[in-house]
Design goal:
Membrane topology: Peripheral membrane protein
Largest sheet: 7 strands, parallel
Pathway: Cell wall biogenesis; peptidoglycan biosynthesis
Radius of gyration: 21 Å
Number of strands: 13
Structural class: alpha/beta
Order of helices and strands: EHEHEHEHEHEEHEHEHEHEHEHEHHH
Mean pLDDT: 91
Oligomer: single chain
Keywords: Cell cycle, Cell division, Cell membrane, Cell shape, Cell wall biogenesis/degradation, Glycosyltransferase, Membrane, Peptidoglycan synthesis, Transferase
Enzyme class: transferase
Pfam families: Glyco_tran_28_C, Glyco_transf_28
Length: 362
């Protein structure tokens, strides 16, 4: 039996790392003897998270372009050239059958080097509006697995496969875990629970909003699980109390989703895909500080299907308390949002992506 080898690259944020790990896990189920290597960016969170998941990882000296003139930007051509050279060495030594990119700084040079070496590459595009790197890489890619329709204007139509984004399999049946989750966080089973998600690093504007609105929320009988992010935990841990659980990072996403009645979240691609499977009422507050404003576009795709509420950061001061209070009081609206967002779920995304990868090696 052939021993297959796979290189996966994705990082910078949990939204790129966890899909790559999910794909590797699924490949491992199908090919227990396969060898895996991850390639990430040095000093980014994948250098910890990937080994924790049981895989080897190599780091490239690469970072993204800043939007303003900085020393980092001036270093970018050197970093890119070094990373391309290092990627070629990695590919030559490891000899992968397929290289899979889930986004993040390192996947650019790695997939470019793989394509140049004639090795099949798979792009897993998570957003409704692709970044410039994946647009460039798509010309040589063997397959492009996407989570949204109508991406033909960005990618070669014949390479696009609608698969959805990989999600944690423990989210498929969260409703049976509600009692356990409420007990885990020491919450009141008779109160509505608000879950606030700012992403793995945290979201300053979302944290400022929750700080400002916390008293008002509590007065409406709500209890809160507030994921403020590692960067902000020291600033906000003082709000910990019986009805408010402030955490920096969430290990058991299945528990927080099971406990939640209403969710406030950023609109990163992985979060949006998870929230479709979870099927709870969501208020999206997209980050405006990401490339091509793709979080707003991700959220809009759900809003157009009447599956969520979208508030831009610029609208929070004037609109948030009105929108939140109205949603909290309207059980019918909560149910309608839940049903509509659940319709967009693609729970078998990981299996579909792996099926596309397998086609390239059979």
């Amino acid at each position: 039996m052939t021993k297959y080898k796979f290189i996966l690259s994705g990082g910078g944020t949990g939204g790129h790392i966890y899909p790559a790990i999910a794909i590797a896990n699924e490949l491992k189920l199908q090919f227990p003897d396969a060898e895996f290597l991850f390639v990430g960016a040095k000093d980014k969170m994948e250098m910890q998270k990937v080994p924790q998941a049981g895989y080897k990882i190599k780091g490239l000296w690469i970072a993204g372009l800043q939007r303003k003139l900085t020393l980092q930007n001036m270093m970018f051509p050197l970093k890119l050239a070094t990373s391309l050279l290092e990627s070629r060495k990695i590919i030559k030594k490891f000899k992968p059958n397929v290289v899979i990119g889930t986004g993040g700084f390192a996947s650019g040079p790695l997939l470019q080097a793989a394509g140049s070496a004639g090795i099949p590459t798979v792009i897993q595009e998570q957003n409704s509006f692709p970044g410039i790197t994946n647009k460039l890489l798509s010309k040589k890619a063997s397959a492009i697995c996407v989570a949204y329709e109508n991406l033909e204007r960005f990618f070669p139509k014949e390479k696009i496969v609608l698969t959805g984004n990989p999600v944690r399999q423990d989210l498929i049946d969260i409703h049976s875990k509600r009692d356990e989750a409420i007990a885990f966080y020491g919450l009141d089973p008779n109160k509505k629970t608000l879950l606030v998600l700012g992403g793995s690093l945290g979201a300053r504007r979302v944290n400022q909003l929750i700080e400002k609105e916390l008293e008002s929320m509590l007065s409406q009988g709500v209890q809160v699980i507030w994921q403020c992010g590692k960067l902000y935990f020291e600033d906000y841990k003082k709000y910990n109390q019986p009805n408010v659980k402030v955490v920096d990072f969430i290990e058991r996403m299945d528990f927080v989703y099971a406990a939640a009645d209403v969710i406030i979240s950023r609109a990163g691609a992985s979060s949006v895909s998870e929230l479709c499977i979870v099927g709870k009422p969501v208020i999206f507050i997209p980050s405006p500080n990401v490339a091509e404003d793709h979080q707003t576009k991700n959220a809009q795709a759900i809003v157009e299907a009447k599956g969520a509420i979208l508030l831009k950061e610029s609208e929070l001061d004037s609109q948030f308390s009105i929108v939140f209070e109205a949603l909290l009081k309207d059980e019918g609206k909560q149910k309608q949002l839940s049903v509509n967002i659940k319709r967009l779920a693609m729970p078998k995304a990981t299996q579909h992506i792996v099926a596309e990868i397998v086609k390239l090696i059979k």
